[in-house]
Design a protein that fits this description.
Chain A has about 110 residues and is an all-beta fold. In chain A, about 0% of the residues lie in helices and about 55% in strands. Chain B is about 0% helix and about 55% strand. Classes of the chains: A mainly beta (about 110), B mainly beta (about 110). At the A-B interface, strand 4, strand 5, strand 9 and strand 10 of A face strand 4, strand 5, strand 9 and strand 10 of B.
Amino acid sequence: GEDVEQSLFLSVREGDSSVINCTYTDSSSTYLYWYKQEPGAGLQLLTYIFSNMDMKQDQRLTVLLNKKDKHLSLRIADTQTGDSAIYFCAEKEGAGSYQLTFGKGTKLSVIP
Amino acid sequence: KAGVTQTPRYLIKTRGQQVTLSCSPISGHRSVSWYQQTPGQGLQFLFEYFSETQRNKGNFPGRFSGRQFSNSRSEMNVSTLELGDSALYLCASSFDRIEQFFGPGTRLTVL
């Protein structure tokens, strides 16, 4: 079955770059996502990448995809205290499926 | 454009009771999915609806059910509540089957 793994914690200093990593096992994944969850809130879609792409940049966010190694990363440039949250990696199978499989989430702590 | 709304936001029930949660998708979105989030199991897919039809179901017992109405609003029902059903229940809507937008969730506590 599908499995998505992430490290549980990451701590960075304000102004530095953060890199959150994720590995997945389903080779049929078509889209890979990054969501952000702040305390007491739902999930906010940050960005996503199609499986035939290597990189996607959106303002301070850069997503890198290594399909051969099934490795996905999210880089946040100039990390701010407002970026402190839990970040979830998720994968979606074929175009006919709506189901997302999530990792356990990486808690990012930004030190002022 | 209004986001996904879920009601109620908080709910306290006792074991054995049943509960109904409601989700209103973003205007124009016909797909609604439900997820359960717990500290132990993380985010788990419950089911998805598109045009009033259940398209996919996760690995949950039959006590968990749902439906979708003609206006795309969706409800999920949990019967015979157990302590382990305490969770944040999240609803997501989608227009293009690619981007899924989540609501704030309903926090269910079972005592």
